[in-house]
Design goal:
About 35% of the residues lie in helices and about 15% in strands. It has about 525 residues and is α/β, with parallel strands linked by helices. The strands form 3 sheets. The protein has a 6-stranded mixed beta sheet, with helices on both faces.
Length: about 525
């Protein structure tokens, strides 16, 4: 026996003797006369195996779940989020559970007193819906997993409009038309002696496909130039493909180009990731249906949000496909028809995007007009306010450079405002008068759609000109619906958006600029003189 085994044997003997003495009260027995075999019992007690429950680390029980989340957090993380004024804590029922720690002072609404008013107002938002889209703070209110939920909700609504099989009942009846009542062809006589036998009618298999193989609806996606947009559009595409949709990815583009692609590709819907109209930390979606019809609050957006919150089931096991499409080339080709018969004018264009100046430069390269660009910051701006910093910046550039006209374009490429050569802001009503006066020379029976405020302002003037006007709500969906119902040529919103009654109705700041340049080219008068003349009409 080796020395190591002898040492282990002696320690085991001593340990057993100590155990016996503690249990029986007797002295240490003499174990030298009966040596123990070297094995499991010969090892020290500290080295013997213990039950798994004694050696495994304790599992921390889940105590809290933040609002809108599914994974639990521990008590320490709960306290850490409370101390850092986590936005979701203001809506949590456990926000007062701080244990033995000092309770932070809170208002009656539950928000900490040292939080800014902006934080409090954001935390109180129960819906991400705006008038014409979805907007939320990146990561705090809208991230990639939540974007996937919105994409899946859109797919669920589109699947409800799709037939559950590959063909319709009319197609199936057309396939079976010409068959006899007993499964024979119409020109075939039944065989004698088989009158009692009536085989079941043949069912056509070609038009009817299983739910796992039917083709999903086609959805176009795109995103703007904000840093958060690529991450959000990835979640949108994931949710759409998981629901079996055929995704067409435009990549980084503009909202007018995106809407053109939805109509050009005859897609069932489209989702454009953008934070236009908000500060840089915000992101969101603009959703359009078939024919690039916008979805607004009161027109489908509430149902979309309800499905995104409740969750939806997959209608098919087969995942959808995804491919790219370069929509900028056909989109620009369709803009050339709007720029003709123009006199040489110098325009100052202010924009916060990179796409808009590039498109304008390519269009103006073949025109007698010139353009000067002014880079604007990404921010929320009021294009109807003459004191807005971006409006004043463009107006200063127009006056100092002696240009004929100034244009301010919002981040969406749709909202726009103009300033005269004197730096004065053209109001939405004045711009509407110029465009309506130009359109009535092109179309004798002119119809327009305007919001209630603009309609009230323009109603006496329109009646004198014999122009029919329809009133709509302050949303893109209402204006486009009224345009289609009344077969109108112009749709006017009070925020700088103008729809032209084409196929489909287009809301594009570039088209608005082209129409205004055409109106100014009818005479040699300056932009300010044309505006003054419209006021006197």
């Amino acid at each position: 026996m080796s020395q190591l085994q002898l040492d282990g044997l002696s320690r085991a003997t001593a340990s057993d003797g100590l155990s016996d003495s503690m249990t029986t009260g007797r002295g240490l027995p003499n174990h030298a006369a009966r040596p123990m075999p070297v094995g499991a019992n010969a090892l020290p007690l500290a080295s013997r195996s213990r039950p798994l429950a004694e050696t495994a680390l304790p599992v921390l029980a889940a105590e809290y779940v933040c609002p809108g989340e599914t994974h639990p957090i521990s008590h320490s993380i709960h306290l850490a989020r409370l101390s850092s004024f986590y936005s979701k804590c203001r809506e949590c029922e456990h926000r007062h559970e701080v244990g033995h720690h000092a309770m932070p002072p809170v208002r009656a609404s539950g928000s900490p007193v040292n939080a800014s008013d902006a934080q409090v107002s954001r935390a109180a938002r129960t819906s991400l819906l705006e008038t014409d889209g979805v907007r939320g703070i990146y990561l705090n209110e809208l991230d990639r997993p939540r974007a996937a939920e919105w994409g899946a909700a859109l797919a669920s609504m589109l699947w409800d409009d799709e037939p559950r099989v590959g063909g319709t009942r009319e197609q199936a009846e057309g396939e079976t038309r010409g068959q006899g009542d007993k499964g024979t062809r119409g020109d075939e006589e039944p065989v004698e002696g088989n009158a009692a036998f009536s085989p079941p009618p043949l069912v056509p298999l070609s038009p009817c496909r299983s739910a796992s193989t039917r083709r999903g609806p086609t959805v176009v996606i795109g995103f703007d130039e904000r840093p958060a947009s690529p991450d959000i559009v990835t979640g949108v595409a994931l949710g759409l493909r998981r629901m079996g949709c055929q995704v067409i990815d435009l990549g980084q583009t503009t909202a007018p180009c995106f809407q053109f692609a939805v109509q050009h590709l005859d897609a069932a819907a489209g989702m454009f990731v953008t934070g236009a109209g908000c500060d840089p930390a915000w992101t969101g979606f603009d959703v359009v249906g078939r024919g690039a019809r916008p979805w607004s609050r009161g027109h489908m957006l509430e149902e979309l949000e309800a499905r995104a919150r409740a969750g939806v089931m997959r209608p098919t096991r087969a995942a959808g496909s995804q491919r790219t499409f370069q929509a900028l080339v056909p989109y620009e080709a369709g803009l050339w028809k709007h720029f003709h018969a123009l006199r040489p004018l110098h325009v100052v264009c202010g924009s916060a995007t990179k796409f808009f100046p590039r498109i304008i430069d390519r269009l103006f390269a073949r025109l007698p007009c010139r353009v000067t660009h002014v880079t604007l910051p990404v921010r929320h701006r009021d294009l109807c306010d003459e004191q807005d910093s971006d409006v004043r910046r463009v107006a200063t550039a127009v006056v100092s450079g002696g240009q004929h006209l100034g244009l301010i374009v919002d981040d969406d490429g749709q909202r726009c405002a103009f300033v005269t050569e004197r730096g004065g802001l053209i109001s939405p009503g004045e711009l509407a008068r110029i465009l309506i006066d130009f359109e009535r020379h092109e179309h004798h029976s002119l119809k327009v759609v305007a919001t209630e405020g603009l309609s009230r302002e323009l109603s006496p003037w329109l009646k004198r000109l014999g122009i029919e006007a329809a009133t709509s709500e302050e949303s893109a969906a209402s204006v486009t619906t009224a345009l289609a119902e009344n077969e109108a040529r112009l749709g006017l919103l009070n925020d700088g958006r103008i729809w032209f009654g084409e196929t489909p109705p287009a809301c594009d700041a570039i088209v608005t600029l082209a129409r205004l340049l055409q109106a100014l080219s009818l005479s040699d008068a300056s932009c300010g003189d044309v505006v003054s003349r419209m006021r006197l009409m």
